[in-house]
Amino acid sequence: MPSIRLLSRLASAFTTPRSPEDFLRLVDPLASARQLRGLVTSVVPETADSVTIRFRPGKGWNAHEAGQWARIGVEIDGVRHWRSYSLSTGAGQDPAITVTAMGKVSTALVRGTRRGDVLFLAPPEGDFVLPERPRPLLMLTAGSGLTPVMSMIRTLVPRRADADLVLVHSSRSPEDSLFREELLELADQFPGFRLVQWFTGERGRRLDLAGTGDLDAACPDWRDRAAYACGPAEFLDAAEALWQREEGELRVERFAAVVAPGSGGEGGRVTFEKSDTEVEADSATTLLAAGEDAGLMMRSGCRMGICHACVTPLLSGQVRDTRTGEVHGEPGHLVQTCVSTAAGPVSLDA
User: Fold this and answer.
1) Rounded to whole angstroms, how far apart are CA atoms 42 and 114?
2) For a tag on the chain, would you pick the N or C end, based on fewer CB atoms within 10 A?
3) Edge-to-edge strands, sheet with 165-171
4) Was domain 35-121 assigned CATH 2.40.50.90?
């Protein structure tokens, strides 16, 4: 029986100068031996600035757990950009991402994605997932931080009669609140799910986590629940400080690395040696962002709260740590690309 390699060589003889894979993609756009792809099956508006994009992944995709995220690649003006997005559908369901038009890539996805488009994918990742054993849960979310938690709710609430989950979600107004109608229906149908909506436009302020008053009113037994939180950095900082004081159990998912203003470092030319790519980056652009803007698939879990997933060997040059302002670096050192900018010419093993 002919080997697969021999069959591939025979096929190539008939398709040269194109590869057999090029012709296969005309029939199946997901066919690729080099890059995992997904075919967009629907684009559903959620708010004026948000959509849910469902897609059918090709071979090589691993079914996601509730709360996980995946890196999505989209081509803009001929350059492939990669970003991390939470998967908003329940475990075992076809994957989807819910995107709000903020930033270049997210805005392009929201405004330009159509049914039949092809997305570039990386397999699901992340450990912001449901506990292994059933227990009372409290979910604290704000804005688009609801997205990974919605995956958990869709997984747990309709499927478990013993579900005991309280969601306290903060948004500007009912019109800006993601999945509002679905959440109201779930709360009406399932007694184990309670929804507390906090509209800042009506209340005039955010949920106050500096003290316990707002939480005591929203969920009196919050201290007895395993808590999850996802949202803006200041919201999560306050939640972590509160739970630390109360010695409670809290799991946090961050969409951005914790970055503070620093000093020093003037930017410079960044060379990604393995990818044979060079870009100019200013002092405000992290090495991670510089690589992604150049179309590279940079390793990162920072936006999802997974620290040190982006570390990359430094071959030459120095970098500035945006958290402290410290300029450092010697050949062979591992640098966190999500919180490092170029301090002059930099070469990375990426």
Assistant:
1) 7
2) N
3) 193-199, 165-171, 137-142, 226-230, 250-253
4) no
